[in-house]
Design goal:
- It is a single chain.
- The protein has 322 residues and is an alpha+beta fold.
- It folds into two domains: 6-45 and 100-175 and 278-321, FAD/NAD(P)-binding domain (3-Layer(bba) Sandwich); 177-276, Alpha-Beta Complex (Polyamine Oxidase, Chain A, domain 2).
- The protein has helices spanning 14-25, 66-78, 103-109, 155-165, 231-236, 242-254, 296-299, 303-321; strands at 6-10, 30-34, 46-47, 53-54, 81-83, 95-97, 113-116, 122-126, 129-133, 139-140, 146-151, 176-187, 197-199, 207-212, 224-229, 262-277, 284-286, 291-293.
- The strands form five sheets. The chain has a six-stranded mixed sheet with strand order 7-2-1-11-18-17, covered by helices on one side. The chain has a five-stranded antiparallel sheet with strand order 13-14-15-12-16.
- A hairpin with a 2-residue loop joins strand 8 (122-126) and strand 9.
- Helix 1 (14-25) packs parallel to helix 3 (103-109) and helix 1 (14-25) runs parallel beside helix 8 (303-321).
- The N and C termini lie close together (11 Å).
- The model has no long low-confidence stretch (mean pLDDT 93).
- This is FAD-dependent oxidoreductase.
- Pfam families: NAD_binding_8.
- It comes from Methylobacterium tarhaniae.
Length: 322
């Protein structure tokens, strides 16, 4: 691998952002590409009508690892993140990005080369380098050949890219995800009776999580809810239309809490929402090929784990080039 070559990072979630920031600090050039309209991945915020905003992906993050905890402390001091509620029952405190969940990712990527709306469909080997292409073969990032490609998108998407390139990263195929349908709701009824969060761990429940989105620091407006359907319900309704899902989830919510007039409702499908089976390694990297994989699929379903995985992959790249 060319120790001075440009590195492509596919996926602008927190794993990709962590890798990009570490490589940049070490003097390496990285280009981050993502098919979405903006960075953040599953740390996402959706805009609705009348200035409504919903954190419809990851609801919060915790900081157990000292390295990540120090980063969160810095974010909090600069207003990039904030504590959400008080720790209880010996559980670590919840933190959120401010004013939206994607703020920490955007902070990590600040000043770096990030290209959103770029859907990588193929990896093409060009001598010792890699080039990126759309699924139909149209070139992406035409100005660069890449010495390494770091995959931080979910494993099914990473596997498709690897297969098209005729390469393998042992372990990627072992990752399993649970899907999740998310309901975003604005209503005129009273707030949750038992606090800003209601969680149901019953695997047969329709709704596993409800949060008063407006209770998070930096958010505006009451009467905004985010509800996550359980993995089993989401699997059973995975291919349903979003409007049909929204109606079903509103009906399920009415059985759990009073809802007033509904001002807005929308549903979003996350096919790869939460890791159910992880690799069990900080990252995956094949020396000499320039191919690597990082994300919560490596260590488990936490924002913190995704960050540490991206950081570990960047360190592997730097160690090989040393």
């Amino acid at each position: 691998m060319d120790r001075d070559g440009t590195i492509a990072i596919i996926g602008a979630g927190i794993a990709g952002a962590a890798a990009a920031r570490r490589l940049s600090e070490a003097g390496r050039r990285a280009v981050v590409l993502d098919k979405g309209r903006g960075p953040g991945g599953r740390m996402a915020t959706r805009r609705g009508p009348d200035s409504l905003r919903f954190d419809h992906g990851a609801q919060y993050f915790t900081a157990r690892d000292p390295l990540f905890a120090a980063l969160v402390e810095g974010w909090t001091a600069r207003g990039v993140a904030a504590a959400w509620g008080e720790p209880s029952g010996g559980r670590p405190g919840r933190h959120v990005g401010t004013p939206g969940m994607s703020a920490p990712v955007r902070d990590l990527l600040d000043g770096l080369d990030v290209r959103c709306g770029r859907a990588v469909g193929r990896l093409v080997r060009d001598g010792r380098d890699w080039r990126l292409a759309e699924a139909d073969g149209a070139a992406l990032a035409e100005d660069a050949a890449f010495s390494a490609v770091l995959l931080t998108c979910p494993s099914p998407q990473s596997l498709a890219l690897l297969a098209g390139a005729g390469h393998d990263l042992p372990g990627v195929a072992e990752v399993r995800y649970a899907p999740c349908w998310t309901l975003m709701l604005a209503h005129d009824g009273p707030p949750l009776r038992d606090g800003p969060v209601r969680e149901d761990r019953d695997p047969d429940a329709t709704i596993a999580w409800i949060a008063e989105n407006g209770s998070k620091p930096g958010r505006q407006g009451g009467g905004t809810l985010v509800a996550h359907a359980s993995p089993s319900w989401s699997r059973a309704h995975l291919e349903c239309e979003a409007e049909d899902v929204a109606g079903r989830l509103v009906s399920a919510l009415r059985d759990l809490m009073p809802l007033g007039d509904i001002r807005h409702r929308a549903a979003h499908r996350w096919r790869y929402a939460a890791v159910e089976r992880a690799v069990g390694e900080p990252c995956l990297f094949v020396p000499g090929s320039g191919l690597g994989f990082a994300g919560d699929g490596c260590l488990g379903p936490r924002v913190e784990f995704a960050y540490l995985s991206g950081l570990a992959l960047a360190e592997r790249v730097l160690a090989e080039a040393a």
